[in-house]
Amino acid sequence: MTSLFIDYASAASYTYLNQDVTAYTAPAGSLTYYGTTPQKYKTAAVHPKTCGSPSSGTIFPFGAVIKTSTVLKTPSGTSMQYFTVEDMGDVFCSRGLTRQWFDIYFGYTSSDINQAKLFGIKTVSYTVTLFTNNDQSSQHFNEIKSPETRNWISKQGNILLFSCLLGDMNLKLLLLH
């Protein structure tokens, strides 16, 4: 699947140093916390805003982009540096990971599972970009999801994020309205 991202709004970026990063897998056909289909080596899961409360949402809003300061490599040599927040993991924050930890989706095959295990826990610094119309990053998007169609509409102030599956393309539009 390919992604198209059109950005017509401002963004706030924040840098986090020495954070844990891990890898995860999910059964074929699984959807993320936000109802999207995870993209191998692109989808990131993060902690909930409130540990133990999945309904609190994720610490970074849907669609936030994580860019690591160094290129990460899978055990088989695939390079990764950009990730999109679409999922939630370690809901109870009980794995002993840093607060701004993130988890990279590695796929669903037995080979993917092995690769995720071999990836282990790494420490990285990264910048996360939150697409907003101002610098109030604590006000996460209000989200409306349609699990049946995997479409999303998110709104904050005068910013509208629309995400949908169009054939084999995951279309994401961020617009001022």
Care to describe what's here?
This protein has 177 residues and is mainly beta. The chain is built from one helix and 13 strands; from the N terminus they run ββββββββαβββββ. It has one helix at residues 110-119, and strands at 2-7, 11-24, 43-46, 48-50, 53-58, 65-73, 79-88, 102-105, 122-131, 142-146, 151-156, 159-166, 169-176. The strands form three sheets. Strands 2-8-3-7-6-9 form a six-stranded mixed β-barrel. A five-stranded mixed beta sheet has the order 1-13-12-11-10, with no helix packed on it. It has a two-stranded antiparallel ribbon with strand order 4-5. The longest helix has 10 residues, at 110-119. The chain is globular and about 35 Å long. Residues 1-8 and 133-150 have low confidence and may be disordered.
